[in-house]
Design brief:
Layout: H1 3-14, H2 27-36, E1 42-45, H3 52-59, E2 63-68, H4 71-83, E3 89-92, E4 105-111, H5 118-131, E5 132-143, H6 147-150, H7 164-170, E6 174-188, E7 192-205
Parallel strand pairs: 1-2, 1-4, 2-3, 4-5
Antiparallel strand pairs: 5-7, 6-7
């Protein structure tokens, strides 16, 4: 999907009064952030959408940067941050347009970034590794192929879904701290609702 097509697709999706993925943070992120992140950590949120995860992290005392391709989503995210009395440095861009400065972040967060095809996904893993500080962590949540049976969210293209083997292959430069495939009831807005087939990973850039 070209940038202009992706921007139009996501603008149309986010152009609703409600938060389509809800206002609460992702559960796996909350669980892992409490283990691995500290206040004042510098955190990057990939494709943060309407801001539910970035705002939660900022409320925990993190210094949050985020980006998204949709200006409609980011307008909602800016307002959501203001409503919660936190500041987030948001950038309007896609993953290839973001400035992945080397050794810059204590953590990178990627929650349901399954717009990425296999080539983009490989680039993102390389970009994340580059931009993390030594010892920094990468927290990832996505759907597995079994999600195609549940149809409770996520893409319909199997090549955009995650298997444990695939994620291990992409994470060879990292030290994997947690990697699990599991099923759980999600309630994350209208777009992620119901029993879901999930993968969660925390990986650390070696010191």
């Amino acid at each position: 999907m070209r940038f202009i097509d992706a921007k139009q697709f996501w603008n149309e999706r986010f152009n609703k009064p409600e938060f389509i993925f809800g206002k609460d943070p992702n559960e796996y992120l909350v669980e892992q952030a409490s283990k691995y992140l500290k206040p004042n950590s510098s955190v990057l949120c990939i494709a943060d959408g309407e801001g539910r995860n970035g705002v939660w992290l900022a409320k925990q005392g993190m210094n949050v940067t985020g980006f998204d391709i949709s200006e409609i989503a980011l307008a909602k995210a800016h307002q959501f941050a203001a409503d919660n009395a936190v500041h987030i440095q948001y950038n309007l861009c896609d993953t290839d347009g973001f400035n992945w400065q080397a050794n810059s972040y204590d953590a990178v967060i990627a929650i349901f970034i399954q717009f990425a095809d296999p080539e983009m996904r490989a680039r993102i893993f390389r970009q994340v590794h580059q931009t993390l500080k030594p010892g920094g962590v990468f927290i990832l949540q996505g759907y597995t192929p079994k999600q195609l049976e549940y149809k409770t969210g996520g893409p319909s293209l199997i090549e955009h879904l995650y298997t444990e083997e695939m994620i291990r292959g992409l994470s060879q430069e990292f030290n994997i701290l947690d990697l699990r495939c599991y099923e759980k009831e999600l309630s994350e807005g209208t777009k992620h609702s119901g029993i879901s087939a999930l993968l969660g990973m925390v990986a650390q850039k070696t010191i």
